[in-house]
Design goal:
Number of strands: 19
Structural class: alpha+beta
Largest sheet: 8 strands, mixed
Strand content: 15-25%
Strand order of the largest sheet: 4-3-2-1-5-10-11-12
Helix content: 25-40%
Distance between the termini: 17 Å
Radius of gyration: 26 Å
Oligomer: single chain
Length: 476
């Protein structure tokens, strides 16, 4: 087997300050029988949203097939899903990266492995006491702590592929797969490739000269960076990336690459059912919005008067209005004026807090309702089904299945549990983009969260995809 690596800077440096540069990287592969290339892009998606348009994949594949004789469907592209701003000529830059990688082909040995890192991610979905689910986003506030009864799983596994040069035994490429949104950000709000940039740097600086690290995004649909909603510390992806990089590095060093690896590529088309219940969901959310609006009640307080009263009630709930001797003095005189005032203020505070909680729920509802309404308007001109690629790649013992949706983490866990061999992994955000693809249970959520509102698929999609993924992994 031969492999070659290359990277090209795709950062839009005219879009503002840059914290961490974004790259397109190419890992070219050839084993005598077939050719392929893995492309990783520091971008939010391969089409659909962001700077990469829907025609990017076809244009890049066509040019690479024409120039390098790599079959179009063997050009496998994964977006990290970082929210960086990249150059608009990313097509040409991607093709150039692949050209450079192909020119650099050299014989390699291959090895697969797994690492673990469970400190830098958290599931953003929350189960509420009333049976609904919501999620943690910076776009809106969290529910009350007393309403939250459970959260979802994470996948701490780091999937690894190591390729070593035959001529000198040094590492050439380290591909690592992990599941978490790269949206922690930079302390100065600069344009950033987020935690994968730091993880890749940690791997490259420690594994040896000439190695290139390739980050592949896994099933991160409902996975946030750890402490994503923290408001007491600057948002900084560097500590998260360093932890991931060092965790991957420990496992990479334990891999022993071997001669004789072969490669297999499969790229099937899967037809999925589109949502048919968006009109009903929109009606239900609009009805809930009306119910919430009608529940808002006027109070004598505004924020200026609410805040000091709230602090007083918290600091001294038994005697908030005055010192104890004042209450005792009134009691001796047979009066309860302060007690009556406390009761009035307590009722006003409770009413004001109910209004705040209602407004917070309205922000969550409004944001997610807008997502459903957007997809409903677009669906009127689309077919009833959605055709997507399900690609598979095997290099030696390393197996990878790729899908264009934002897969939620339980789907990846399900597939890996039934997959052949210990080194089978699942990547979302690949070879296109079809928005969120939640589990059937999440999709039927009677509440609202981004994963079940910003979606095109019907609940039945999950079983179809998991069966296809199992089939692809078995056939590799």
């Amino acid at each position: 087997m031969r492999a070659g690596v290359a990277r090209v800077d795709i950062t839009d440096r005219e879009a503002g300050p840059v914290a961490e540069a974004s790259y397109v990287k190419a890992l070219a592969l050839e084993d005598g029988a077939s050719r392929a290339v893995i492309v990783t892009v520091d971008a939010v998606a391969i089409g659909g949203i962001g700077r990469i348009d829907d025609g990017y994949l076809a244009r890049v594949r066509s040019r690479i097939e024409r120039e390098l004789n790599i079959p179009a469907r063997h050009v496998l592209v994964n977006a990290s899903h970082c929210h960086s701003v990249i150059r608009r000529d990313v097509d040409a830059l991607t093709i150039e990266a692949v050209r450079q990688a192909w020119r650099a082909l050299t014989p390699v040995r291959a090895g697969a492995g797994r690492g673990m890192e469970d400190r830098i991610q958290e599931n953003r979905r929350m189960k509420l006491r009333d049976g609904r689910e919501t999620d943690a986003r910076r776009a809106y506030s969290m529910p009350r702590d007393e309403d939250v009864v459970a959260t979802g799983p994470i996948d701490p596994e780091v999937g690894l592929l190591r390729l070593d040069r035959v001529d000198n035994g040094r590492p050439l490429a380290a591909l690592y797969l992990f599941a978490a949104h790269p949206i922690q950000g930079a302390p100065d709000n600069g344009n950033t490739a987020d935690y994968p940039a730091f993880a890749s740097r940690a791997i490259e600086e420690n594994l040896g000269e000439g190695v290139m690290a390739f980050f592949v995004q896994g099933c991160a649909g409902d996975i946030n960076p750890a402490r994503y909603k923290d408001v007491r510390q600057p948002h900084d992806a560097e500590p998260l990336g360093n932890r991931l990089g060092l965790g991957a590095l420990r496992a990479l060093r334990a891999i022993r690459a071997a001669d004789g690896a072969t490669m297999s590529v499969i790229n099937d088309t899967l037809v999925l059912p589109r949502s048919t219940d968006t009109a009903q969901r929109i009606a239900a959310l609009r009805a809930r919005r009306e119910e919430l609006l009608k529940s808002l009640q006027g109070t004598t307080l505004n924020f200026k008067t609410f805040l000091p009263l709230y602090v007083e009630q918290r600091v001294s709930p038994e005697m908030p209005a005055y010192y104890a001797h004042g209450y005792l003095h009134e009691k001796d005189r047979g009066r309860q004026h302060l007690r009556v005032l406390d009761a009035e203020n307590r009722a006003a505070l409770q009413a004001y807090l109910r209004n705040i909680e209602t407004m917070e729920e309205l922000t969550r509802l409004q944001t997610n309702l807008a997502l459903i309404e957007m997809h409903h308007a677009e669906a009127a001109q689309l077919p009833a089904t959605l055709a997507v690629e399900v690609a598979g790649l095997r290099i030696g013992d390393f197996r990878l299945v790729m899908f264009p949706g934002e897969l939620t983490v339980q789907i990846g866990l399900n597939i890996k549990q039934r997959a052949p061999g210990p080194f089978s992994f699942v990547a979302g955000y690949s070879n296109g983009y079809i928005f969120y693809t939640p589990t059937a249970e999440q999709r039927r959520n009677p509440g609202y969260a981004q994963e079940d509102c910003d979606t095109l698929v019907a609940p039945e999609w999950q079983a179809l995809f998991e069966a296809k993924a199992a089939d692809v992994l078995r056939r590799l």
